[in-house]
Structure formats: structure tokens, C-alpha cells
Amino acid sequence: MLVERVTYRFDSIQHYTQSLDELLSNLRTSLLDRRRRYFADEAQILGNVVTEGQEKGVFKKGDAFDLGRTLVSATNSLLPYSLSALELGDRTIVAERAAKTAELLIRGLMK
Q: Which among 9, 26, 60, 86 has most CB atoms closer than 10 A?
């Protein structure tokens, strides 16, 4: 799920011809509010997965929603708005970093 949230966004911006900074500067206020809502929704979904893992005895106990928010925060640096133009040009590198980050995060949740 963590890798998909990164690679899906990466793929969805490939058709933009303007720089993301130019595009986002015009929409910043509404974008930040929308992004905050999306991140909260994603944290809730990931929190549900964490809860399931906790109930099965696979993940450590803790506030599942807070852990979901932590997972979202930890992968936000791999989303398109945080990447350089060079990084935006290489999906393979971004997907590999997302996979390594996800593996590290999941290991941290395990008992």
C-alpha cells in the first residue's frame, strides 16, 4: 500500500509539462487543504490495516491511526511535490526507494 501511494502519484503527474512549483503556487491554499484531507483518509485506511495486524498478533500494539499517520508522513518525501525534476524523470528509482522505505516501516511495526 505504501509503495502504491507513491508510485500512483508519480505516474499521475507524468503528463504535466509545467513545473510542479509553478502549478502548485497558483493552487497552494486549496491544494494544502485537499492534501491534508487525503493524508488523513490514507492514514485512516493504513490505520485499519495496522489494527488488523495488531489483532492477528503480527504488529505491535499502539494507536493504529497514529501509526497510520506516521506511515503516511514517512512516505510523503517520495511523493511528486517533494521530488526534484531529476527524480521525477526516473520512476524506477522512486519505486525502489518506496519499496525499501515500506519494508523498513513494516519491520518497525512487527512484533
A: 9
Give the count of domains, the chain. Answer: 1
Paired with 110 in beta bridges are 59
pLDDT single digits (tens) 6-58: 999 888 877 664 566 666 677 777 778 888 999 999 999 999 999 999 999 99
- Rounded alpha-carbon distances, angstroms, from residue 92 to 1, 88, 100: 17, 10, 12
End-to-end Cα spacing for the chain = 20
Q: What range does the domain containing 49 cover?
A: 2-109
Measured CA to CA in angstroms, residue 50 lies from 34, 35, 55, 102, 107 at distances of 24, 22, 9, 13, 12
